[in-house]
Design brief:
Elements: E1 10-15, H1 25-36, E2 41-48, E3 55-59, E4 62-67, E5 71-73, E6 76-78, H2 82-93, E7 97-102, H3 105-114, E8 120-125, H4 136-149, E9 152-155, H5 158-161
Parallel strand pairs: 1-2, 1-7, 2-4, 7-8, 8-9
Antiparallel strand pairs: 3-4, 5-6
Helix pairs in contact: 2-3, 3-4
Length: about 160
């Protein structure tokens, strides 16, 4: 991410399944990252809302774009407004980096459609999709494309590195 070294403030847009006050492993890590970065970074988050309502709010000084959840399939939230809300977040926030928390297949597919070429992509690989074997053949091409697009991949275990 060499061309960002001379910028005074680097903007990082995190994409997580949910965000605080929703509690979960990935959500906690995302919150730690968002709130723990140095003053050289400005952060915002795009995540699902736990209800059928789009909303933009602030948590501890960080802008959170919460996308309405209309349907849940195989523990994956789906939203008719995700594309619009992600584009809005990118347009308003103008990130230098998008930090995507995987696995999160529906947002991954949308992200591939809207991520600007100049924006760096960091993928934080938390887990594989293992229990949803029926949908994985649909997810794998999106996953592969996202990994190829990534500028950096962060893994949470030695097994994922391999």
């Amino acid at each position: 991410m060499e061309n960002l070294q001379n910028k005074q403030t680097v903007k990082v847009l995190y994409i997580s399944k949910y965000y605080y006050p929703y509690l979960g492993g990935v959500e906690n890590i995302c919150k730690y990252l968002v709130e723990g970065v140095s003053k050289d970074f400005e952060t915002a988050v795009v995540c699902f809302n736990d209800c059928n309502k789009n909303q933009v709010d602030e948590v501890n000084g960080h802008k959170i774009y919460r996308v309405a959840s209309q349907l849940m399939i195989e523990r994956q939230a789906l939203s008719l407004s995700y594309h619009r809300m992600l584009k809005k977040a990118i347009r308003e926030f103008q990130p230098d980096i998008i930090h995507f928390h995987a696995a999160n297949p529906f947002p991954a597919a949308v992200l591939l459609m809207v991520i600007p070429k100049q924006v760096k992509l960091v993928i934080h690989w938390h887990m594989d999709i293992t229990k949803q074997r029926l949908i994985y053949p649909l997810v794998k091409p999106v996953e592969t494309s996202l990994l190829k697009r990534a500028n950096l991949i962060v893994v949470t275990s030695p097994q994922y590195k391999e």
